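Minutes, methods subgroup
Present: GH (chair), OT, SY

1. OT presented the first of two proteins processed in the latest run. Sequence and structure tokens recorded below as shown on screen.
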Amino acid sequence: MLSSTRSSLLRHINTELRSSLPIPSLLSHFCLPPSPAYHLSFIQIQRRYRAEFAPRNVTRRKAHKGRVPIRIGGSTKGTTIVFGDYGLRVKDGVRLSSQQLTAAHWAIRRKIKSVKGSRLWMRVFPDIPVTSKGNESRMGKGKGAFEYWACRVPKDKIVFEIGGGGIRKEVAKEALRLAGDKLPVTTEFVERATKENNISLQS
């Protein structure tokens, strides 16, 4: 009986997580002593509420698949560091999902949060809806259902930049390495040398 009541309480906390009433008070409100498993359950609930990147407003619910752009004619748009001191650059054109970008974003934040005044910039954003249909399904009957948000990233595009707070190069390189491990593409660590040029270092 106690376990079923506790599970219903966790479901209540799951729906009312943003309530001003703290969770220990909720436990006392239901006349239940806080158990050692409460902390683990609360961490799992927090992870569930770590929302992925997604656009707030959309004009098209579904979109064509499209292709990753290939820049010709010597264009260098988005290939140099603009905001921070260090950056993460992709070596090949790729389509990155919202889940992958969110995982890389949090990997960087966890690493640089100890550096006071450090900042993080994300130079891409997943705003393209990706749909899918089941395997071996018959043709017709419209486009597949929405599955996730994604973005098309061309070759040599800077994805993340970090800087500020006097962050050391070793910390920045490790943070961006952890982020690169979350992405399904080869990346490299770059740093700002001058206003005109960037020095690239193979990670």
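2. SY then presented the second protein from the same run.
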Amino acid sequence: MKSLLLALLLTGSAVAEENPLSVELLSEVKAIAPGETFTVGLHLKPPAGFHTYWKHPGIVGVATSVEWSLPPGFSAGESQWPAPQTVKMARYTAQGYRGESLLLVPITAPKTVPDPLVTLTAHVSWMCCGPQCHPASKVPFSITLPVAPSSTATATADPTTKPLFDRFREQVPKKDDAWRVEIARQFDSLLLTLTSNQPQLTRDVAELGTLRFFTADGQIDSDREQKVTRGPGQKLRIELPLSKQSHEGSKLAGVVVAQQSWRKDGTSVALELP
């Protein structure tokens, strides 16, 4: 099979043969401070007409995944994903990104780092789909960072990458106590009810625009219609069709994305269910 890679650059970027996705491994900091946690990111940029997939792709697709090779004492935390969008694979509705995305990954350094330079390596697998689908498996990307000279040093943000990290960090779904969540099972669907606890802070449900729930565990069928009912008052209901892989019970994992922010001040862009 013809190799998927044409080149692997030391900066952490690669161009894939017959694979249209641009992938870069970036750092938010210019140097590593021993004992501190810093953030790196996988920057994915599909061309127009193509898409990648969220941490759960839905009924079809393959989620982007990463396996880390780190120096002794370093550890990688859980990836933080920006809010997903609906994408189409053939006639099926899936969950992913139609444009660029940045997967944020916290990396914790040990208190003592003996080497002046540290190399972090990520083995990345993905599926980039458009008119055709292009898979890639465990493609290595590396980035080398200097170590700050003392254990009391604080990592300094890289001005060339920090705006990108800030932009996508704002898009990561978060829990919001201003909205009360209720879930009930009814036949072949789950009824998700969201009610504002603090209407002085939250946006009127009539102003939220298009709404959609994205399943994080496959319990909800990503391809079927979700019926939204607004009101009375600051309340909305979303009927979520269960998938063939659903289980008994009324637990729900995922995020709810609205066209407008959930709070009037724009700080709550997507709701992660508690």
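Chair's summary of item 2: Residues 98 and 177 are 30 Å apart (CA to CA).
Next meeting: continue with the remaining queue.
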